[in-house]
Design a protein that fits this description.
six-stranded parallel β-sheet; 13 helices; about 35% helix
Length: about 350
């Protein structure tokens, strides 16, 4: 079996899931080529596990000061270029397109009659899970941004639907340094992050951000460039995580038993819905703006018990190889049977 794996490059959550899958595919000797879109080629990092991958422009969202900039999003994206990329992507040598919310490979598979399986957090939002801001436009995005024949979503809880657990690969050497806090707020301005954190001089904040270190950065804020290895090591030892409301980092925090404070990207349906799910489960604190008083209260909170999610990537690859792709309910059920959910989660539903 030869697979093309299309991955949305916007943000790092899709890439984290793809890394888990790359390891599982390699272990089971599945031939796979990776195709990324949604990010400048020069902005990818730590990509060795993907071999000689391809990257195209695709579609992405523009952000400004913690919210989606609709006008800039429309300006940055070219439908003409997208259509050209779809037409030029030759899938004749592939048996299957595996897709993580990536539009070029999804539409190429649809046009060329190649079987396609979508695996993404966005696919979970097609079920009646906790959602905020759901409307016809968001449903159009979920259904037509990267259309696939078979759709598998992943979420922190199944909510009574055929949904996969998160794809989590975390550092096994876990400690909890209560005054060491990891901060990942990529859509917020550096100045606003410094303003949020500077007064908590009893803590050290390890801020991972793509922008240069701001001039007014105080001594309790360590400004870090992107390094996947250093990020994961810091995640394993920190006392808590302040982040956007993306899916994968929250999944890793839950798996490690790290307290979590999230601030969603406004105008982003997925992140707002993630906040709703985390609040329903009692799994995180949230703030709609960068509010120091919320941080002050959260810093005093204790850490939750870690959630041991199973090796979803290995099970999914085995399922794909079997070829019985319309039996996803059994796959999902078998994986959730391996999860000891917190007592307060067990009867939760949307």
């Amino acid at each position: 079996m030869r697979i093309l794996y299309g991955v949305q490059g916007t943000g790092n959550g899709h890439l984290s899931r793809a890394r888990v899958m790359a390891k599982a595919l390699k272990a089971q000797r599945v031939e796979v080529d990776f195709f990324f879109s949604g990010r400048e080629v020069s902005h990818y990092f730590d990509m060795q596990c993907f071999g000689r991958y391809r990257a195209h422009a695709g579609l992405t969202f523009a952000t400004q000061n913690g919210r989606v900039n609709v006008a800039q999003t429309a300006w940055q994206n070219s439908l003409t270029a997208l259509i050209k990329d779809v037409r030029e992507l030759d899938l004749s040598g592939y048996d299957l397109v595996l897709n993580d919310f990536e539009p070029v490979s999804a539409w190429a598979a649809r046009n060329q009659g190649i079987p396609s399986i979508g695996v993404s957090h966005q696919a979970a939002l097609q079920h009646d899970v906790p959602k905020v801001g759901d409307n016809w436009f968001n449903q159009m995005i979920l259904n037509y941004f990267a259309p696939v024949q078979i759709s598998l979503g992943c979420h922190w809880h199944h909510f009574g639907y055929p949904i996969l657990p998160p794809f989590v690969e975390v550092d096994k050497s876990v400690s909890h340094e209560p005054h060491e806090i990891l901060v990942y707020l990529p859509f917020e301005s550096p100045e606003d992050i410094v303003s949020l954190l500077h007064s908590f001089d009893g803590y050290r904040f390890h801020v991972y951000h793509g922008a240069p270190r701001p001039a007014n950065c105080s001594a309790n804020i360590l400004w870090c460039g992107f390094s996947r290895h250093k990020f994961k090591a810091q995640l394993a030892r920190c006392g808590g995580v302040i982040s956007g409301a993306g899916f994968e980092l929250a999944s890793e925090a839950l798996a490690l038993g790290k307290k979590l404070l999230v601030k969603p990207l406004h105008g982003q349906f997925e992140q707002l819905s993630n906040v709703a799910a985390l609040q329903l489960l009692g799994a995180a604190e949230s703030m709609m703006r960068l509010e120091p008083h919320v941080v002050k209260r959260w810093l005093k909170a204790s850490n939750p018990e870690p959630i041991k999610y199973p090796e979803v990537g290995d099970a999914l690859v085995s399922w794909i190889k079997q070829g019985r792709w319309h039996t996803k309910e059994a796959l999902c059920q078998s994986l959730w049977q391996q999860v000891a959910l917190p007592e307060g989660w067990r009867k939760k539903s949307a």
